[in-house]
Structures are given as structure tokens and as C-alpha cells.
Design goal:
The chain has ten helices and eight strands. The protein has about 270 residues and is α/β, with parallel strands linked by helices. A five-stranded mixed β-sheet has the order 1-3-2-4-5, sandwiched between helices. Helix 5 links the parallel strand 4 and strand 5. Helix 2 crosses helix 6. The two termini are about 35 Å apart.
Length: about 270
């Protein structure tokens, strides 16, 4: 009957189609079209770096900074597996890329999405073919890559260098690692500029008018340019919410205040969805 939604479409049939047919089709499509692929290879990989999106660029920058080109990576046993579809992670390609390596380093920004899928995929491999998988934590449970904020190529370079130097004494990598460490420490000593410029509405922006509330009133902020009103005390605008949730902060406030009414800044997308 095909993979797609149709009408009428009972919920239980949708659920069955999703899990029994659509998800396997997604995996088959990803594999057939090489959406996830090895971009740097080694015939006997010891360290496999699995990465995606912006973090892939950080990995390539880190390798450049460490002086590791494709030829040296091949000799050292480094393989880089670039994931084009983080979820659901295509199982066969991921297993082929990682099985038999000593260690897998997952480099991804924010929370771990690939890492836990990869651990599930590799879990039932025989002991000598199941690598140690590291990402947000190292093999000893210590923090490795941060979940909050931005992941920087310097941090990625240190993590790669430490794992390479654990099985190969490469002077070039050792020297480059020391330089990167110095660069990080020098950057930490720099004081931020005392000049701070708060973002403001562009000239002629309609939000600059629509976020002004009547005297004695206040507003709750949402997602979009109009959120900048929260940085302007005279606009009497507070809180923020997820996209599509504009105004819901008032639902929690309303029972606990004598204020009968507030204004809610509503994004165009939320307005249309509503």
C-alpha cells in the first residue's frame, strides 16, 4: 500500500507503517545513496572518528592543525566516518566503519545523538571487534566534549592528539599538540572587551512598533526578532519560550497574579500554525 500517509489513515496503521516499513526504507535509502561515508580511510583502522555537520569541519581543521593529512592518517590507522543523517543512524555502514577498531571518537555538538545509537549498534559485536566508544565522556567516565555551548576545533584537536599519541609516538603530532595547548591557554587569559553592543531592531522593522505596550501593561516574549524587546526595560517584556509556545508562560503565571491581562509577542509562524 505504499509508505506514505493517506486518508482515512487510522493511528495504529500509521504506527505500524512507520516502524515496520518506513524506518527500514529510510535506512535502505541512506545506505544505497551513501549518505554516510568514509572520507579518510586506513586499511587497519585503530581510531575511527565519527562526526557530522559543523563538527565534521572542526575535525578536518583539527587534523590540519595536528599536521595529519590523508597519507599520515592511513599510516597511523585513522579513519573518518562522515555521517550525513544523524538519526536514524544507518546501522550497516556504521558497523562496517567501526568494527575492529580499538577506539571510536564521536564528535558532535550539543547532546549526544549519534553516540548512543552507535553504542547500541556495536554492543553485540564480539569482544575483539567491539571498540571503546567515546564522545561526551572518555573511557574512564570523565567529561570529554561539552554538551553546552560551542565545540571548538582546538578541543577536538587535543582529544584526537591524545588518542593518537597513546598508540603512536609521532613528533609532529606531539609538537602541534603543545602549540594548540598554548593557544588555548593564551586565549583564556584574554579579557573580553568592555564595549558591549546590545542587538536592536533594524531600521523600519515592524517589531519595533508592535512590541511597545500600553502604559501599565507588560508582555511575555516568544521566539523571533521580537524577543529583543526583552533587552529593552521600557518595553516591559519578560520570559521566553520555545518556538510555537508563545504565550504559554502566561498560563503558568496567571493563577498567581492579580494582573488580569498581558500581551504576548507571537511569531508569524506561530500565528499561521494557530
Amino acid at each position: 500500500g505504499g509508505l506514505h500517509i493517506r486518508w482515512p489513515d487510522p493511528w495504529l496503521e500509521q504506527e505500524e507503517r512507520l516502524h515496520d516499513w518506513k524506518m527500514p526504507a529510510v535506512a535502505a535509502f541512506a545506505r544505497a545513496n551513501a549518505i554516510d561515508r568514509v572520507v579518510i580511510d586506513s586499511p587497519k583502522p585503530r581510531l575511527v572518528i565519527v562526526t557530522t555537520g559543523k563538527s565534521y569541519l572542526d575535525v578536518r581543521q583539527a587534523l590540519d592543525d595536528l599536521g595529519i593529512d590523508a597519507e599520515l592518517a592511513r599510516d597511523l590507522g585513522i579513519r573518518v566516518y562522515k555521517v550525513g543523517m544523524p538519526w536514524p543512524l544507518e546501522r550497516e555502514g556504521a558497523r562496517e566503519a567501526c568494527a575492529g577498531a580499538e577506539r571510536v571518537l564521536v564528535v558532535e555538538e550539543k547532546r549526544s545523538l549519534i553516540e548512543w545509537q552507535l553504542k547500541d549498534i556495536l554492543y553485540d559485536l564480539a569482544g575483539d571487534r567491539r571498540p571503546v566508544v567515546e564522545g561526551k565522556e572518555d573511557a574512564d567516565g570523565r567529561k570529554l566534549f561539552r554538551i553546552n555551548g560551542e565545540l571548538h576545533a582546538n578541543e577536538v584537536a587535543l582529544a584526537i592528539a591524545d588518542r593518537v599519541l597513546a598508540f603512536a609516538d609521532v613528533e609532529r603530532v606531539k609538537a602541534r599538540r603543545a602549540l594548540i595547548q598554548q593557544r588555548i591557554e593564551a586565549g583564556a587569559e584574554k579579557k573580553p572587551s568592555e564595549f558591549q553592543r546590545t542587538p536592536y531592531f533594524c531600521s523600519g522593522c515592524p517589531h519595533n512598533t508592535s512590541t511597545r505596550v500600553p502604559e501599565g501593561s507588560r508582555a511575555v516574549a516568544g521566539i523571533g526578532c521580537h524577543f529583543m524587546a526583552a533587552w529593552m526595560p521600557e518595553r516591559k517584556t519578560e520570559t521566553f519560550t520555545q518556538m510555537g509556545g508563545e504565550g504559554t508562560s502566561w498560563i503558568g503565571q496567571a493563577p498567581f497574579t492579580e494582573t488580569p491581562h498581558v500581551f504576548a509577542n507571537l511569531g508569524d509562524g506561530t500565528y499561521n500554525h494557530s
